[in-house]
Write a structure and sequence with these properties.
Elements (H helix, E strand, L loop, with lengths): L1 H11 L17 E5 L4 H13 L13 E17 L5 E15 L5 E15 L5 H36 L2
Parallel strand pairs: 1-2
Antiparallel strand pairs: 2-3, 3-4
Helix pairs in contact: 2-3
Length: 164
């Protein structure tokens, strides 16, 4: 009973074990395709692959699998106001679309949209701190989003291997 409650509590708070991302050797190297607006997210995804020993091709022509990543949206929304109608809390949102393609451009999996959100308590008397904190939190969100993207690629690759 206690174990079940602990498991439910851990999943409810967002805790997740981090494992390594693995792709079969016959699907490597991968090439990450991204538009200019998605460059930071693509670089973060590349870091995730490199950390997990997944070969990343420098040119599309060298790849066995194309990972297309697009940063769709970045938003900042007010979540709560203080007694002077200033932002007491705000939420940051980022969403990205992911697709897998064959080297000839045929769609293999996706598109799939993933979203990352963070709620931040704001000190309305420190606007410089808010901007600095937003920048730091956005970088953390991109890193978390790239981990989720890498895991999605891994999941799809296992699905494709299981297909006859």
């Amino acid at each position: 009973m206690l174990t079940a409650v602990a498991c439910l509590w851990l999943t409810a708070c967002g805790f997740a074990l981090r494992g390594s991302t693995s792709l079969a050797a016959d699907m490597q190297p991968v090439f990450i395709s991204a538009e200019r607006d998605s460059h930071e997210l693509a670089q973060s995804l590349k870091r995730q692959f490199v950390i997990n020993n997944v070969a990343v091709a420098k040119r599309r022509s060298e790849a066995k699998l194309i990972v297309v990543v697009t940063l769709l949206d970045e938003q900042k929304r007010s979540a709560a106001l203080d007694d002077e109608a200033r932002d007491a809390e705000y939420a940051l949102y980022e969403s990205a679309r992911l697709e897998l393609q064959s080297p000839d451009g045929k769609n293999l999996k996706g598109p799939h949209t993933l979203q990352q959100r963070r709620l931040i308590v704001n000190d309305p008397d420190n606007p410089v701190g808010e901007e600095t904190e937003s920048t730091i939190v956005r970088a953390e969100m991109r890193e978390q989003l790239s981990i989720r993207l890498a895991r999605q690629v891994e999941y799809w690759s296992h699905q494709m291997q299981a297909q006859p």
